[in-house]
Amino acid sequence: MEGKEEDVRVGANKFPERQPIGTSAQSDKDYKEPPPAPLFEPGELASWSFWRAGIAEFIATFLFLYITVLTVMGVKRAPNMCASVGIQGIAWAFGGMIFALVYCTAGISGGHINPAVTFGLFLARKLSLTRAVYYIVMQCLGAICGAGVVKGFQPKQYQLLGGGANTVAPGYTKGSGLGAEIIGTFVLVYTVFSATDAKRNARDSHVPILAPLPIGFAVFLVHLATIPITGTGINPARSLGAAIIFNKDNAWDDHWVFWVGPFIGAALAALYHVVVIRATPFKSRS
After folding, report:
1. Which contiguous run of DSSP H or E holds residue 110?
2. Closest listed residue to residue 192, CA positions, set 214, 224, 208, 209
3. What radius of gyration do the chain's Cα atoms show?
4. Is residue 143 part of a domain?
5. What does each of the 286 residues of the chain score in pLDDT, given as a tens digit?
6. Does residue 2 form part of some domain?
7. Distances (CA, A) of 177 to 3, 143, 222, 240, 261
């Protein structure tokens, strides 16, 4: 009997139990998905960290508009592109500021600085509706103040040079502008999801990643591609702040494009991340 039992044990070694691999093989020590954020969380309103996060979003968006719109004004004042930083310089200003500001505020508010990013993260249940609305309001107020300070420095030139307001460029249809904003925002929000994915970082911990860098670089690349089409919005607060302070009809004619496009792009990025990227199939070792 002992010989037969030993044969059974040897046979078991030849055909080991099927072991799960991939995400299904994670142990208790590995990353576990946090529960989705509640739709409403009244307790947040009593927390100083909640209000502090909104203030951080306000200041970050204020600084973002101040530096970027001032850069746009400098380029438009130059007699030609060669006498200024040009489109590449504008793109670097936007991407560089996002890199710096996300780095500064990520630990406080998450470093959204963009209603489209906030909307995408809300759809993915990364934050509550209460926080999302609060962030968007503070981002828009910060953008208005940032553009207002730029106008205060040079009121006449600000109005003459377009105030950094987003418009669909001549030769392009509103549909083309909308498509550019959708795809550009998709690139940005998809990058945000990928760069801040804690599950990916836990799985690939040997790969160091500095989240603000790819996010800022995505903003830079999108600006290079779409400045000639729409001036590049991909941030409704940025478009709203410049439009309110500039306040000319041409800034408002196409303004809906810079809200609808980014929100659609953000929703598509959130859907892609949740349904496709994070839906890793479970496999078993044969």
Report:
1. none
2. 214
3. 24
4. yes
5. 555 544 544 444 444 444 444 444 444 445 566 777 888 888 888 899 999 999 999 999 999 999 999 999 999 888 776 778 889 999 999 999 999 999 999 999 999 999 999 999 999 999 999 999 999 999 999 999 999 999 999 999 999 999 999 999 999 999 999 999 999 999 999 999 998 887 666 555 544 457 899 999 999 999 999 999 999 999 999 999 999 999 999 899 999 999 999 999 999 999 999 999 876 554 545 4
6. no
7. 78, 22, 13, 16, 8
Amino acid present at 30: D
Give the C-alpha separation, 222 to 185, whole Å: 8
Contact 245, 148 (CB under 8 A): yes
- C-alpha span between 229 and 184 (Å, rounded): 11
CATH assignment of the domain containing 148: 1.20.1080.10
Structural domains in the chain (count): 1
Taking each helix axis from N to C end, the angle separating 48-77 and 236-246, rounded to the nearest 10 degrees, works out to 60
Tokens of 98: 């996002």
For the four alpha carbons of 184, 189, 194 and 196, in that order, the dihedral sign comes to: positive
4 within a domain of the structure (yes/no): no
Q: How far is 176 from 60, CA to CA, in rounded Å?
A: 30
176 by Cβ neighbours in 10 Å (0-12 / 13-18 / 19+) ranks as middle
Q: What's the domain range around 150?
A: 46-277
Q: Where do we find the tokens 């906030």?
A: 118
Reference 236, options 56, 65, 8, 74; nearest CA is: 65
Residue 31 lies in a domain: no
